[in-house]
Design goal:
Largest sheet: none
Structural class: mainly alpha
Number of strands: 0
Number of helices: 7
Number of domains: 2
């Protein structure tokens, strides 16, 4: 019987191992496993507990949960609200959207490369630090925040629908990142793409 204190109590050790295999980078899931496994006395469960504990301890500080950004935007006067690095993580890899931008497949390849590769040394050291390590929550957050920010700023200036294509690309790319790198792995809220 499961309780609120032991929600995983009804699962077998094999099932817990499967959950671990699918969620090695999700601190919340690892913590749930570490709550249940000490109740198990068999050697297999004890070995799994040690492995989960080591994995949890080795998660980078970059891998902490974060709130997923929103692309909601108020109607503005067309001016940008913040200063940005001229070329960022995505721009350095040739990421472009809209009518003159990359097609969906090429944008997805660029996003994959941005997530799994080291940041270009041509970018400022402080900015590279903001991007975090490859495959980390911090890296995914930086990418998602950037894309959501691009979409929000375009929505503020989208009089007459001139940025509709770019906004559609950014929102499609956020959905791609969510499906490929977020779902089942990270526990932070995913952003909404609704216009305010």
């Amino acid at each position: 019987m499961t309780t609120s204190l032991r929600p995983l109590a009804s699962l077998t050790t094999s099932q817990l191992g499967g959950i671990f295999d699918q969620n090695r980078a999700n601190p919340a899931v690892l913590d749930s496993l570490l709550t249940e496994l000490p109740f198990r006395r068999r050697k297999r469960a004890q070995r799994l507990a040690v492995t989960v504990q080591e994995t949890r301890e080795n998660l980078s500080a970059d891998d902490v949960p974060f709130a997923w950004p929103s692309t909601d935007a108020e109607i503005g006067d067309g001016r940008l609200a913040a200063q940005f690095q001229p070329v960022g993580l995505l721009g350095a890899l040739g990421y472009r959207v809209g009518e003159d931008g990359l097609g969906a497949v090429d944008r997805e390849k660029t996003l994959d490369s941005a997530y799994v590769s080291p940041v270009s040394k041509q970018l400022a050291p402080a900015y590279r630090e903001e991007c975090g390590e490859p495959r980390s929550a911090k890296r995914l957050k930086k990418m998602a925040d950037s894309i959501a920010s691009f979409a929000r700023n375009a929505k503020r200036k989208n009089h007459g629908g001139r940025y509709d294509c770019a906004i559609g690309d950014w929102e499609a790319d956020l959905a791609y990142l969510k499906a490929k790198y977020y779902d089942g792995r990270w526990s932070f809220p995913w952003p909404s793409t609704r216009a305010a």
